[in-house]
Amino acid sequence: MFVLSARPIRQTMAPSSGGTTMPALEKLIKISKDRSYDVYERFLWPERVSEDALWCDENLLTTYGTPLHDRLDERQRIALSKWEAINFFSLNVHGIKDAIAFVCNRFYDRRYEKYSEYLHFFLSEENAHMWFFAKFCLDYGGKIYRTLSVKTDDASSALVSDLYMFSSTLIFEEFVGFYNQKVGNNDSVPEIIREINRQHYIDESRHVQFGREVIKDIYEEIRRTDPNWEGRHAEIEKTIKRIFLHFIGLMYSPSAYADAETHKSLGFSSAPELRNVLRNAPERSAYHALWFKKTAKYFENLGAVSSSDFL
Ligand SMILES: [Fe+2]
Ligand SMILES: [Fe+2]
């Protein structure tokens, strides 16, 4: 999902240097240890997932709030919820793959020395998440959807490129967290779905804390050291906003509409046509804001974007 650009070779930590760990990170490491679990034993995987109930909260469906939603009957809404859940979990698989690749490239770079210890926990947790999201998609949907990458390979320096990668990861994690928290507390969705969402939400709260910390650290360094800060800031603001809009767009999946046959139920000639209508429906803006506002506000408070009203 994230595109990495070529970077200069970095200086790595000398074998004897060890890592300085901030108290906040030490706390995160302790919580990660205390809450660790065997992912391969964590869930009871049913033979099949019931299609008698929605697979997410109704107000998480991408038709919700529009007049089209009212034209779907219960069975059609359940079909949509199933394939949108497969889409959502597929997005996680791709996002995690890229986050893992990125983190592996940064282990023991001098720049991230103080984070190295925590990054091992991050990596191990994301590996577990990728396993359960992929298993769910394959066992109950028979596939993992493909996805489009966000273009961040035009970064003007290696550090700006890192800022984009950590920002993409954070924006995605908070986006996922909103969904996970709601579905993880919904007693009417099938148990395996509730449990996956619940577990992921618990683990991700630590990643979000870490992401906010490291982004602030990188952003401040760029601001302090860049001789062309004004131009750099404009570039950063534009890219951060583009990342948000990219993720909003990914919620609307033509593949999910096609598998659920939602476009046929609503009289559209193709799934991409329905996708464009829903993506641009004015009623949907309020839901985009609901999902992404908190994170946009974080970037506004940081100074990376001038206002969080662009969603
Ligand atoms: Fe995750
Ligand atoms: Fe994460």
From TrEMBL:
Q: What's one Pfam family here?
A: AurF
Q: Which GO terms describe its molecular function?
A: oxidoreductase activity
**Protein name according to UniProt:** AurF domain containing protein
List residues traversing the bilayer: none
The UniProt entry, under SUPFAM superfamilies, shows: Ferritin-like
**Highest taxon, organism lineage:** Bacteria
